[in-house]
Write a structure and sequence with these properties.
55% of the residues lie in helices and 11% in strands. With 685 residues, the protein is of the alpha+beta class. α27 packs across α28. The longest helix is centred in the C-terminal third of the chain and has 32 residues.
Length: 685
Amino acid sequence: MHNGKFDYQVIKCTCGIELSIYWDTLIGAKLLDENERSAGLKQQYIEKIDPSIQKYDIEHLFSIEYAVVDPDIFALYAATDAFMTYKLYLYQRDLFMQTDMQRVYSLFTDIEMPLVHVIAEMELQGMAIDQEYAQRLSAKYHKKLDAIDIELNAELAKLQPTIAEWRQTPDANYHPPKKSSTDSEAVGKSKSEQLTDPINLASPTQLAILIYDILKCPVVNKKSPRGTGEEELKSIAEKLKLPVFDLIIKRREQIKLLSTYIDVIPEIAKRWDDGRVRTHFNQYGAATGRLSSSEPLNFQNIPSHNKDIRLLFTAKPGYKIVGGDFSAQEPRLTAQYAQDPQMIQAYIDGKDLYAVIASASFNKPYEDCLEFYPEGTEIEYEGKKIICGHKTHQNKEGKNRRSMAKSILLGILYGRGAKSVGEQIGKTKEEAQEIIDKFFNAFPNVQKWINTTISDAHKNGYVEDVAGRRRRLPDIQLEKYAISSISKDNVTFNPILDCVDRPNTDVLNKIETYRNKLEKAKWKADVDKIKTDALANGIEIHDNNGYIAQAERQAVNSRVQGGAATLTKVALITLFNDSRLNELGAKLVNTVHDEILIEVPEQYADEAAEILSSDMINSAKKYVDKVPMKTDTYIVNSWYEDEMEVLLKETFKKLQNDHSEQEALNILYEDYCNFTKEQINNFLA
């Protein structure tokens, strides 16, 4: 089949038959070249099998009712698709049988093909939505939006004198000539005429007039000199120090949450008789093999930092959501790839790797780099000496060091330089580089692994993850500089072969001269000077160093992210086929990167949580054999309910420092009005 998941679902829902899909040419195409422009059936057939065939047009068939279309036409259409799919299967099979493709073929047969069935069933299952909670959540956020609008109008009112004064200026009343008009006298609207009263803040044009013309804000983005995007607004707010821009940013955030999630998700759920919301999981959604999801809702994009929204997703009555996620999945994979003994030992000893990294990077004891004081530590708290329990008291300095260590490691894995890492952790480029150097000194095998990965990518043009999944990086094998003659006249004509021959000797000599100059150039200014000089002499130089550097960064990241995707996929297959989970009535309902959710009858939730953790850990052992994997599991009524409980308890505790218990409760009832009072009381119990 091609896109077998769709066929599986249609046949199951209409005929009650579950197809066993042996080969999906859509998945095969992605595994053979994830950079393909299109993995669609027609395009694949034209490019791989028969370039002479024209992509036939059948759109006219669907402008009338199916009932009046000749069945023979539909039969031919269906038969042609089947024929194309079979030909593609034969083509892909031959490629997979090549000697150097055995690991990729095993990945296809052992992971990607079994996963088609799993993903199809997970999509059909969907997730339940708490419609009562959705109404309260919508009311809360619309109320917040109204409050922002009141503040925003007050701030805009303060700017009215400035706006009125500007409207009198020549710049405000200048009428530009209409470029598209044949009438030389025709003019467009002036900026003053474009600016409504009150200002329409949803209009980029009007917002740009306010920022750059009225308030005279300097350009903050040279590529977009009158930009009004999120990044530009943040820079503008910092430069002008006017509350109006902070409020505009907040307003945009609220509108996005409402229009993308809060008011949309409940409506999507109403389309289905069972009130559950569904998504299309894209099995090869990213070039690294990571799953993505799309219409009608992107599950991967639902914000995790806003815990309110994920609480929309709930278990149906009598059931619980049991979730699990791999703890530090990417760092553990890094330790496996690098075979770094210090990293591996840290995990074997059950230590927090980020704290171990922080200890080495900041020359502090391990215990002083933990987020919480170790159990049994004596500290002074609120004027008294106390003994800490397990994760009872947070160590702010330790948390900060650990957080910086995490940013450093992930920054290295994602190919960020010292400057970028420094910005993330609040350090200068030089300070960040010093910390990075200390990290590599403490974990030398990581540096060796990165260097080897990049070297192999240059040699092979691709990298592989733990299961042999390839990430092809053609840019990594580009020449640093592509040098060519601008003029076509600089080539000689071969009368014997009746074709254009090689460039003439003079052109070749010029190219070689500039190539030698570029090899000796040390600075960008030197390269730019050489390029300018070459252009004046009819030679064009394309600098590919940026593309090569980007590919080198992707080489390292692709192995880590691809490996993480593989581990999650293997875990999904293992859970789906677990006989005990099936006996308990558990169903897979969602996955987001390293997190997997199942829905199970509440009386079996504890047992299901143990199986979930065990299956996730054991399924990874085939690919990660040196580093012990770990999962964090939870049992909840609604997604992120456990994290909301922690947040409410912490907030309630802080409020009690300045308020009575009842006053603190009343504040919680007001601020978290998306919950009933009874729910809040249960969270705090």
